[in-house]
Design brief:
With 353 residues, the protein is mainly beta. It is built from 1 helix and 32 strands. The strands form 9 sheets. Strands 1-2-23-22-21-20 form a 6-stranded antiparallel β-sheet, with no helix packed on it. A 4-stranded antiparallel β-sheet has the order 3-32-31-30, with no helix packed on it. Strands 4-5-6-7 form a 4-stranded antiparallel β-sheet, with no helix packed on it. The chain is globular, with a radius of gyration of 20 Å.
């Protein structure tokens, strides 16, 4: 295993050299989608899932109207599907979505216990046998047409990644040993405390999962067989909480203990804020790390599929990372919000020197 340092970034992976020069990329926004119009209204409500097909079509699921909106690459709405409910073509709680190689959309709805697969105007539903899940959703479409769906199962620490074929049948399962943190629990339910450490993970269609904990810049790539392939470590000091943030945690804990009848011990309370916010994997295998810098602003670092540092990026808008950004065909797609708090979708070209 070779180890080296480059500009304060420590990379550990088998026999991979460190880049000798820095590459600075930029993002140029060329698409901005503020809503779909039609039955769903002129603006988005609360976006919960985003993916982009190989044909460049942008698939967005709005949790407020329970609708899937499909846009052409230029941002013009092309199709709208769905409504709230439990019947065919209806949705309750959507936790994830993926677009396969043929442009078919998979939608994961655990409350309705099903997967919905949309191909053109044809809608097919399949039973989802495991009702439990963890947010943000661990899953996506593999290198072909199969869906990978992260579930929580009794007796397993971490998560189990199910491989579901196009007929909705589970063909295989993989145990993903995600970090187990000390959080309030009631039965199978876990309750996140604001600013406390959270497990971060993202599925790589090449057969890997990238794993981290939000308060340490240490990211590991693990194969679906459980082998650690490589890791990336960046030295970052802890980010202390402000007095306002500490007070907000105290208020939240009091409400949580009273409403849910759980006990929050002192060791569960955060001593500092998150350093890592979310992770994403591009269709070219690059790892995109969205982190908080010393000014408490969202920053982005990009590494190649071997874990080598490529570039830092300045984000053109205020991204909302509860929906994982998507990197496809040299572009970044993400959910953002304007000064009034309204959500919209951007597409930005990745410009390299």
């Amino acid at each position: 295993m070779s180890t080296g340092d480059y500009q304060g970034i420590r990379v550990e992976n088998p026999s991979v050299p460190i880049l000798s020069g820095e590459r600075q990329w930029t993002l140029v926004t060329d698409v901005r989608i503020t809503g779909a119009g039609g039955p769903g209204g002129d603006t988005f409500g609360q976006l919960v899932a985003l993916d982009v097909g190989a044909d460049g079509r942008i698939h967005v699921f709005d949790g407020s109207d329970h609708m899937l909106h499909v846009f052409r690459p230029d941002g013009v709405v092309e199709a709208t599907h769905g409504r709230e409910g439990g019947g065919p073509g209806e949705y309750a709680v959507v936790i994830g979505m993926g677009v396969d190689a043929d442009g078919r959309t998979w939608i994961v709805d655990p409350v309705n216990a099903r997967y919905t697969r949309i191909a053109g105007g044809e809608v097919t539903t399949h039973h989802r046998s495991v009702p439990t899940y963890r947010l943000p959703w661990l899953g996506g479409v593999g290198s072909g047409r199969e869906l990978y769906d992260g579930v929580v199962m009794a007796g397993f620490k971490g998560e189990v990644l199910l491989r579901v074929d196009t007929m909705g049948i589970v063909q295989d399962s993989f145990w993903v040993e995600t970090p187990v943190l000390d959080v309030p629990r009631r039965g199978t339910m876990e309750f996140a405390i604001p600013f406390a450490p959270q497990p971060l993970r993202v599925f790589d269609p090449r057969g890997y999962v990238w794993l981290a904990t939000s308060h340490t810049y240490e990211i590991s790539q693990v194969s679906l067989e459980g082998d650690t392939s490589r890791s990336v470590t960046v030295p970052r000091p802890a980010i202390p909480l402000t007095q306002f943030e500490r007070d907000s945690v105290d208020r939240y804990v009091k409400v949580l203990e009273a409403a849910m009848r759980v006990t929050v011990s002192p060791r569960m309370l955060p001593a500092s804020g998150p350093i890592l916010v979310t992770l994403s994997v591009g269709d070219d295998g690059t790892l995109w790390v969205f982190s908080v810098d010393g000014r408490r602003q969202l920053a982005t670092q990009v590494f190649d599929s071997a874990g080598r540092y490529l570039s830092d990026l300045e984000l053109p808008v205020n991204l909302l990372t509860h929906v994982r950004p998507v990197i496809r065909s040299g572009r970044l797609f993400a959910v953002a919000e304007d000064s009034a708090g309204a959500e919209f979708v951007i597409g930005a070209r990745i410009v390299k020197p």
